[in-house]
């Protein structure tokens, strides 16, 4: 294991958490967007997105023998398949013949919880990165 491995792992987690924060903030920003894409002749509301995070560890036999760790990364961004919500608002220009408007499947409360937990994870990785950095600096002082 390399002396800089902890910095690499924390750095990859920082990158993944930053992307997750971007996805969550996009969801919050579009929580009321009723016209996101034009499909089959009609406008469709914004659909909630989620970042899928996975380990970056390679699964080769040699990597398991050496116990190599390489952090995490975002594998893909997927759309939530939860159905849209219909809200009765006949004065809205996006309403259908019955007066209902299809609204995004974004729950702002859930997004705020995701935002707080991801920002806490980001802060924890910054702390781990700084601890690793200070240990490396102390190790350099020993050699003097």
What is the mean pLDDT?
88
The number of distinct β-strands equals 6
Cα-atom radius of gyration: 22 Å
Order of helices and strands: HEEEHEEEH
Class derived from helix and strand content? alpha+beta
Low-pLDDT ranges: none
Spatial gap, N to C terminus: 24 Å
Short account of what is shown:
The protein is of the alpha+beta class and 144 residues long. The chain has 3 helices and 6 strands.
Characterization of this structure:
With 144 residues, the protein is of the alpha+beta class. The chain has one domain. 46% of the residues lie in helices and 20% in strands. It has three helices and six strands; from the N terminus they run αβββαβββα. The strands form three sheets. Strands 1-2 form a two-stranded antiparallel ribbon. Helix 1 packs antiparallel against helix 3. The longest helix is centred in the last third of the chain and has 35 residues. It is elongated and about 80 Å long. The mean pLDDT is 88.
How does the SSE layout of this entry go?
Elements: H1 5-29, E1 37-39, E2 42-44, E3 49-55, H2 61-66, E4 72-79, E5 85-88, E6 100-103, H3 108-142
Antiparallel strand pairs: 1-2, 3-4, 5-6
């Amino acid at each position: 294991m390399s002396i800089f491995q902890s910095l690499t792992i924390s750095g990859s987690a920082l990158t993944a958490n930053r992307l997750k924060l971007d996805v969550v903030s996009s969801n919050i920003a579009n929580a009321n967007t009723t016209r996101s894409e034009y499909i089959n002749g009609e406008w469709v509301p914004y659909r909630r997105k989620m970042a899928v995070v996975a380990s970056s560890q390679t699964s080769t036999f040699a990597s398991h023998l050496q116990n190599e760790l390489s952090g995490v990364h975002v594998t893909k961004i997927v759309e939530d398949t939860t159905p849209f919500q219909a809200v009765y608002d006949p004065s809205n220009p996006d309403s259908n013949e019955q007066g209902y408007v299809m609204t995004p499947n974004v729950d702002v409360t859930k997004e705020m919880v995701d935002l707080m937990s991801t920002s806490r994870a980001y802060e924890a990785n910054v702390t781990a990165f700084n601890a690793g950095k200070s240990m490396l600096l102390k190790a350099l002082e020993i050699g003097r």
